Structure formats: C-alpha cells, structure tokens
C-alpha cells in the first residue's frame, strides 16, 4: 500500500516531498480523512522520506533502502506507532512513547511518531502528549491520524497543522473494494453510497445486503413493467431485509440510485451507472419514459425522507412510493 500512496494522494505526497527536501516539516500534523484515504500510508511514506538513505532529488523516498524497508515493516527504532488499546489510547502509551524517545544515541536524532485513531486518546493521555509536542525539540515530527477529527480535543487540533486527505476517486474506491473480494456489480453500487471504505467493505461482504440489491432490482423491474406485484414486493421481499433504521435508510439510498440510473441512461447510453448488470434493461426502459417523468421519479423517492421525518410508517412510505412511481413512469 505504501507504494500506492503517491497514486492515491498525488498532491499531498508532492507537497510533503517538497517540505522534506527543504527541511520545513512542522512538529505535528493531524491527518484527517475517511478510512481508506491513506492516512497511515502517507505518514509512513513521509517518515521514509525523512530517514531514506537514497532519497530521490524531488524529496521522495526510494522505498528500497534498509531505512525505508525497516520503516515499512514497523521495525525502525526512531519511528514509533501507537494504536488504541481497546477503546482508548491511555496515558501509559504516551509515557511509553516518551521513554522510547528519551533513549539517546539511537540512530541519530530525528524521531517520528504516528498515533492512529487519535480521537480515542483519554484526556490525561492528550495532556501528556501536548506537553511533549510543545517541548522545544526540533527533531520530533508527530503524525496524528483520525477518521473523526471532529471528536478530537480542540487543544490538540490547535497545536497541529491539519491536513485534509483527499477522498478517494471512484476508480480507486472501486479497485479497493474489488481487491477486498467484492464483486464488481456490488462494488459499483457501493461506491455511490455515503460511507467510508471500511463500512463499504462490511456491506459488500454482507449477504443480506446482496439480497437487498437483487430485490431492489426486482422491485424496479416490476415498476417499469407496470406490474402490480411491485407493491406486494415491499411487504414480502424488501421489508424482511431491512429490520433496522440504518438498513432502511440504505434501502432508500438504493432506490434513489436506481431511479437516478434511469435518468443518466436517458441522456447517455454509456453513462457510469450504479447497477451495472442491469444497464441494458434500465436503458431500454428509460428510452420509453420522458426525461421529465424520470426526474420526477427521483424527487418522489427523495420525498420519502421527509415523510419518515414526520413519523409515517416506513412500510407505508415505501408502498405509497411504489404506487406513485408506477403512475409517474407510466403517465397515469
Ligand atoms: Zn530509502
């Protein structure tokens, strides 16, 4: 993964390579971004850039020398990583970090530490860390990593340079999901969901979610065929798969997605759709429906969120939606 970071975060790696070259690294960085955006890889890569024996002229690490390899393997005495023990990062772990760094004479002066999930630091650990960051010792560079930067103590944030990781583009995300063993058809839907990579991988490997995808397709096929069974499918096929609110919200997201696919295909036969295996069927159906009606269809699904907010039963909302979509697409 370290080799990939220049592809995932081209601007940031370029930026940090320049800082390394010009010896202008700050004392503490907060790398903030969703899981999968390469926070740890970036921190490791910068550490390699700092210690590399054969650094390239542009400041990037060679990734081959002994220093680079030891850092990648987490076996470098001057690059220390801290991960939460259970649910929190405790003061003992910060003490450990300090004691590691106080061992003088190890591999020169520079020290780098990387703290993962920094929002899990207890207050006392954070206070201890703050004192450490503020010691006027120019040779320490700290990387604090977090997917939930809004949960970090403001006193910590204010002492760091905050670096927002760019979110993954669609291709990278697709590739990651497929590398995790997820089928392309499922991955294409997942990249359209509003969630970070870990959640998407969990969903993609969940059998219930895969069933849900298949049933959303069946539901839409019935609507497009003006088949009354679409209404029945809500109770018999979809409701059993969404027993809890998060799953219910996912189902609505999937419904918006498949309605949006219809619009995309109405305008471009080769549009990048979510439901790739149904592309041909959806394109043929979309060609028969006026674009204005397809747009209205998406609005009808979006309206369901408002209805749910005022406590209408979930099943009633979906049944009402099904009837309205049938009328909308078949102009009754
Ligand atoms: Zn190297």
Automatic annotation (TrEMBL):
Please provide, alphabetically and separated by semicolons, the GO molecular function terms listed in this UniProt record: 3'-5' exonuclease activity; DNA-directed DNA polymerase activity
* Highest taxon, organism lineage: Bacteria
Q: Which GO terms describe its biological process?
A: DNA-templated DNA replication
Database matches in InterPro entries = DNA_pol_HolB (IPR004622), DNA_Rep/Repair_Clamp_Loader (IPR050238), P-loop_NTPase (IPR027417)
Q: Which PANTHER family match?
A: DNA POLYMERASE III SUBUNIT DELTA, REPLICATION FACTOR C / DNA POLYMERASE III GAMMA-TAU SUBUNIT
Q: What is this protein called?
A: DNA polymerase III subunit delta
Q: Which organism is it from?
A: Ligilactobacillus araffinosus DSM 20653
């Amino acid at each position: 993964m370290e080799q990939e970071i220049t592809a995932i975060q081209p601007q940031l790696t370029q930026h940090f390579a320049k800082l390394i070259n010009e010896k202008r690294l700050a004392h503490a960085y907060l790398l903030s971004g969703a899981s999968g955006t390469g926070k740890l890889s970036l921190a490791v890569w910068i550490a390699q850039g700092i210690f590399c024996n054969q650094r390239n002229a542009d400041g990037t690490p060679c990734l081959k020398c002994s220093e680079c390899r030891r850092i990648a393997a987490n076996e470098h005495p001057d690059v220390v990583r801290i991960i939460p023990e259970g649910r929190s990062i405790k003061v003992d772990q910060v003490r450990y970090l300090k004691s590691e760094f106080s061992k003088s004479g190890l591999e020169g002066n520079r020290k780098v530490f990387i703290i993962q999930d920094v929002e899990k630091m207890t207050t006392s650990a954070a206070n201890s860390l703050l004192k450490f960051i503020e010691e006027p010792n120019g040779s320490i560079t700290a990387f604090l990593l977090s997917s939930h930067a809004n949960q970090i103590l403001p006193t910590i944030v204010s002492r760091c340079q905050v670096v927002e990781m760019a979110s993954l583009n669609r291709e990278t995300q697709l590739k990651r999901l497929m590398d995790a063993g997820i089928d392309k058809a499922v991955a294409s839907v997942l990249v359209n969901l509003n969630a970070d990579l870990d959640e998407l991988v969990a969903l993609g490997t969940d059998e219930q979610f895969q069933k849900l995808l298949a049933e959303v397709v069946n539901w839409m096929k019935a609507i497009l065929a003006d088949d009354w069974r679409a209404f029945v499918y809500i109770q018999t096929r979809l409701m059993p798969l969404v027993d809890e609110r998060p799953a219910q919200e996912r189902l609505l997201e999937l419904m918006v997605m498949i309605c949006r696919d219809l619009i995309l295909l109405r305008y471009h036969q080769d549009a990048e759709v979510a439901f790739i295996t149904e592309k041909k069927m959806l394109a043929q159906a979309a060609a028969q429906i006026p674009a204005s009606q397809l747009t209205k269809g998406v609005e009808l699904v979006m309206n369901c969120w408002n209805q749910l907010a005022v406590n209408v039963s979930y099943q009633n909302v979906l049944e009402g939606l099904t009837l309205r979509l049938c009328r909308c697409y078949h102009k009754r």
